[in-house]
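Q: I have 449 residues here and want to know how they pack in 3D. Can you give me a structure?
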Amino acid sequence: MDKLSSGGMSHLYMTIFLHNISTFMVIPAITDVTMTALCPGRDECSIAIYLTGFQQAIVGLGTLVMMPLVGNLSDKFGRKALLTLPMIFTIIPLGILAYSRTRNFFYAYFVAKTLTAMFCEGSVHCLALAYVADNVPEGRRASTFGILSGISSSAFVCGTLFTRFVSTPSMFQVATSVAVVAVMYMRIFLPDSIIDDDISAPLLSNGKPKVLNSDENSNVELLSSKALPSLPDLIALLKTSPTFSQAAIVAFFSNLADVGLHASLLYYLKARFHFNKDQFADLMVISGVAGTISQNFLQLILMPLLAPVLGEERLLSIGLLFSCAHMFFYGLAWSFWVPYAAAMFSIFFVFAQPCMRSIVSKQVGPSEQGKAQGCISGLCSFANVISPFAFSPLTALFLSEKAPFNFPGFSIVCVGFAAMVAFIQSVMIKAAPPISSERVSSNCDHMEP
């Protein structure tokens, strides 16, 4: 397939920026909205922590099934068609809170968010990664993944900074509007990068697929049966190479820690230091600015120079080491300024995800990029299921008056140990030769013309 022009990639960047800014700008306020609806006037609320953990577990269970399916369907029907659905579903819960944030509307938001996130959570990012893998040569893939992460960090900074200076009602209304604009921009401007020779009509078109093989019925049945990859298919994919398997373990434990941190951190800071929406926004702006500087300077300038010398495997380890350190600083925070200092560590740990995704992309053939990224995202979703059961009860217990000992950040420290497992595994990854872009993997569904 011919690579898209830089204009095509710029449209992807703008799509991701608009989508992410609409989702990120609500993060600083959602903790206050949740606690106001469930435990008004309090800084500690166990039911809010458990409800958030329950939501993450259900969403993780749903995305565990959906991510490999989304990735595999995008290999057949195109990235653009599959991007449309989660971007539209994202609008629904935002619109509910834009209308009202009373208890009844919060419960409606909770249900809508849980159901839509089972499909939307991570799928836009997964499909964007597969889109990049389609259109960027292997040698520039890690730095391009870094650019994509930089776009997300820029959206994170802009969204949280906007939240810092506007009221909660206005913020949800703007987030809903930006989410609508993101869908419209993507449908109008983003070119599709996947054209399957066996199917002439896209998934969202009104036309019926035309199978070019003379045995039409047989091929349609084969396409339908392979829409959802089976468990043996995913296991075979994990066995593609030792490097792929090790990267999958790193992705699992890294995401286990990240989800545990994000689920607990804001409730911990509210109970420990009485943070509110504005302090959350300040903290996220610092973290986002540090990450943006890293991605726009370190990754764009230094990563292309460091990756051939140190290797993506070592850069992955460096990123995970700093990720562990910043989690431990959060958990051991002895003053209100320590979380702000810990947020600065994001200038280094942003190396981790682009390097890990690039390592994965080089271990499969070009026709399996969506399936590979979907498999990794599915493992991350499995971590989403487990993490709330492990860390939400710890957070609720050690923030309550029934804590066995006085250590409010105990659950955050446990999260840091999970990240340390990912770091140790990353040190064991050895560089492996990439799969040639000319090779079609034996696991690929191939039909003779």
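Q: Anything worth noting?
A: The mean pLDDT is 78. The longest helix spans residues 277-310.
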